[in-house]
C-alpha cells in the first residue's frame, strides 16, 4: 500500500507540444513574437513616455488632459505587460515549462489579467474622454460640470472597476507539475481549467466582457466622433462664409482652417484605427482555447490580432504629432528646455511661450480640447 501511494504522488512526465504543432508555427512565432512585436513595443514605450512628458506640461491643463494622461499610462503599462507575454509564447510556447513557481504563477494567472485589464482601462479612458468632448462640442453650455464626474476621481475609479471586472480571468488556467525525465527537477506547466471554462457563467461572462470593452466602445466612439465631425464641419462652413463677407482679411483664418481639417482627419482616423485594430481581438478572446491553438491558421489569426492591438496602443504619440500643432509645439519646447538658452537671462525657454504662433483653435488628439460652438470656435475646458 505504501508503494502504491508513493507511486501515485510522483509527478507525470511533461507533455511537450513540439511534436504535435504544425511545422510552420515556430517560424511564425519567431517572426511575430520575436521580431515584430518587440519592435512595436519599443516604439510604443518611447511614444507613451513622451506622451506623459508632454501632457504634464503647464499648458496641458484641463479635464481632457487628465483623461489623456490616464490613457497614455494605461497604454504604457499594457505594452510593458505585453513583453513577458511575447517571451512566454516565443520561449515556453503555450503550456510552458517553468522551474520557478512564481514565474509560473505570473504567466498562468496574472499574464492575461494584467495585460487585458490595462487595455480595458485604456478603452474606458478613451471613451470617457470622447463623451466629455462630445458634450462640450455638440451640447455647449448645457452641462456646467463634466458629465462623467470629477476627472481626478474618474481616472481612479475606472482602473478599480475594470480590474474588478477582469478578475475572473485569473481562474481560466491552472498550474500543473511534471518531470522532463525521471529524477529530473520539478517543472511547472499551464493547463486550462476546463470545469471553469465550460461553466455557463464563464460562457456568458466572456461574451459580455467583449461587448463592454470592445464592441460597445467601437460603436460609441464611431458615433460620437462622427457627430463631432458633422458639427465641426458646419461651424467651419459658417466661419468661412463670415470670413468671405469681410472686407478686411484675417491672416489667422487659413491656419485656423488647416487646424480644423487636421482635427477632422484625426477624428476619422482614430475611429477607423480603433475598429480595425481592436475588433479582431473580440473573435480571438471568445474563441481562444488549446484545441484552436493547435491549428496553424488560428495561430496566424492570433498573431495578427495581437500585433494589431499592440500597434493601436503604440501609435498614439505619433498620431498626436501628426495631427496636433499644439502638441508638436509643446513637444518642441519640452525637448529644447533646458538645453536651449535665451539671449537675455541664459535660462531655458519658458514653457508658456511658443516659438510658433498659435492659432485660435487648438487640438490635442484622441480626443482634442478644441471645440466648435454654433456661433464661434473657442477653447473649452472639457
From TrEMBL:
SUPFAM superfamilies: Family A G protein-coupled receptor-like. Belongs to the G-protein coupled receptor 1 family. Pfam families: 7tm_1. The keyword Aminoacyl-tRNA synthetase does not apply. This is Probable G-protein coupled receptor B0563.6. Coiled coil: none annotated. The keyword Magnesium does not apply. It is found in: Membrane. Residues 359-374 have a biased composition (Low complexity). The chain crosses the membrane at residues 31-54, 66-91, 111-131, 152-171, 211-232, 263-283, 303-323. It comes from Dinoponera quadriceps (South American ant). Residues 47-320 form the G-protein coupled receptors family 1 profile domain. GO terms for cellular component: membrane. Residues 346-382 are annotated as: Disordered. CDD domains: 7tmA_FMRFamide_R-like. PANTHER family: G-PROTEIN COUPLED RECEPTOR B0563.6-LIKE PROTEIN-RELATED, G-PROTEIN COUPLED RECEPTORS FAMILY 1 PROFILE DOMAIN-CONTAINING PROTEIN. Keywords: G-protein coupled receptor, Membrane, Receptor, Transducer, Transmembrane, Transmembrane helix. GO terms for molecular function: G protein-coupled receptor activity.
Amino acid at each position: 500500500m505504501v508503494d502504491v501511494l508513493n507511486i501515485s504522488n510522483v509527478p507525470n512526465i511533461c507533455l511537450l507540444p513540439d511534436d504535435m504543432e504544425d511545422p510552420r508555427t515556430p517560424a511564425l512565432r519567431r517572426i511575430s513574437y520575436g521580431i515584430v512585436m518587440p519592435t512595436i513595443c519599443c516604439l510604443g514605450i518611447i511614444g507613451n513616455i513622451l506622451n506623459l512628458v508632454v501632457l504634464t506640461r503647464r499648458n496641458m491643463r484641463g479635464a481632457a488632459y487628465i483623461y489623456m494622461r490616464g490613457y497614455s499610462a494605461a497604454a504604457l503599462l499594457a505594452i510593458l505587460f505585453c513583453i513577458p507575454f511575447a517571451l512566454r509564447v516565443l520561449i515556453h510556447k503555450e503550456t510552458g515549462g517553468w522551474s520557478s513557481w512564481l514565474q509560473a504563477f505570473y504567466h498562468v494567472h496574472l499574464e492575461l489579467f494584467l495585460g487585458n485589464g490595462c487595455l480595458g482601462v485604456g478603452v474606458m479612458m478613451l471613451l470617457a474622454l470622447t463623451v466629455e468632448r462630445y458634450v462640450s462640442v455638440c451640447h455647449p453650455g448645457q452641462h456646467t460640470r463634466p458629465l462623467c464626474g470629477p476627472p481626478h476621481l474618474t481616472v481612479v475609479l475606472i482602473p478599480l472597476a475594470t480590474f474588478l471586472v477582469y478578475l475572473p480571468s485569473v481562474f481560466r488556467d491552472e498550474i500543473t507539475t511534471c518531470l522532463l525525465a525521471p529524477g529530473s527537477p520539478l517543472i511547472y506547466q499551464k493547463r486550462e481549467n476546463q470545469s471553469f471554462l465550460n461553466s455557463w457563467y464563464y460562457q456568458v461572462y466572456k461574451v459580455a466582457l467583449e461587448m463592454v470593452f470592445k464592441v460597445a466602445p467601437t460603436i460609441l466612439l464611431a458615433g460620437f466622433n462622427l457627430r463631432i465631425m458633422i458639427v465641426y464641419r458646419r461651424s467651419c462652413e459658417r466661419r468661412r462664409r463670415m470670413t468671405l463677407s469681410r472686407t478686411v482679411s484675417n491672416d489667422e483664418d487659413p491656419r485656423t482652417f488647416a487646424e480644423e481639417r487636421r482635427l477632422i482627419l484625426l477624428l476619422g482616423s482614430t475611429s477607423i484605427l480603433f475598429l480595425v485594430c481592436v475588433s479582431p481581438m473580440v473573435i480571438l478572446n471568445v474563441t481562444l482555447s488549446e484545441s484552436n491553438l493547435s491549428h496553424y491558421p488560428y495561430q496566424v489569426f492570433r498573431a495578427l490580432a495581437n500585433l494589431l492591438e499592440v500597434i493601436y496602443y503604440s501609435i498614439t504619440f505619433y498620431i498626436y504629432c501628426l495631427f496636433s500643432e499644439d502638441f508638436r509645439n509643446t513637444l518642441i519646447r519640452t525637448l529644447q528646455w533646458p538645453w536651449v538658452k535665451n539671449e537675455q537671462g541664459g535660462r531655458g525657454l519658458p514653457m508658456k511661450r511658443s516659438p510658433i504662433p498659435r492659432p485660435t483653435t487648438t487640438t490635442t488628439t484622441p480626443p482634442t480640447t478644441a471645440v466648435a460652438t454654433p456661433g464661434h470656435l473657442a477653447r473649452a475646458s472639457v
